[in-house]
């Protein structure tokens, strides 16, 4: 499980069940386990500090590179 954080203010945004070793380019909504400081507004994802984090693409959020950091473990299957 990964903790996704805002790169600007370091707030926790959500907990994400990442499958596979690749970079986090998208966050699939059905694998977001708990939302902390993120807000969805007009099809975009914001941190509560106002920073742009991603774009709502329906079943997933397309993440904006460098807007977030993460730590934790990815799983293989
Ligand atoms: Zn923030």
TrEMBL record:
Protein name as annotated: Uncharacterized protein
Organism: Desulfolithobacter dissulfuricans
